[in-house]
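Input record (one chain):
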Amino acid sequence: MAKIDVVCPRCSETHEVIRNGHSGSGAQLYRCNQCPKTFQLSYRYNGAKPEPHQAIVD
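The corresponding structure, as predicted from the sequence alone:
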């Protein structure tokens, strides 16, 4: 079994990231214990990705 280190997009921590259930589309959710950030590695909807989402907000 291979181990994949998941990196938090906010604080870049790898050791404090844990699995946190699944999204509505079935993608794995992760949570960082260092900062209160919940995220997923793959997005089905492109508007939910961090880069386009920030452009929409701006």
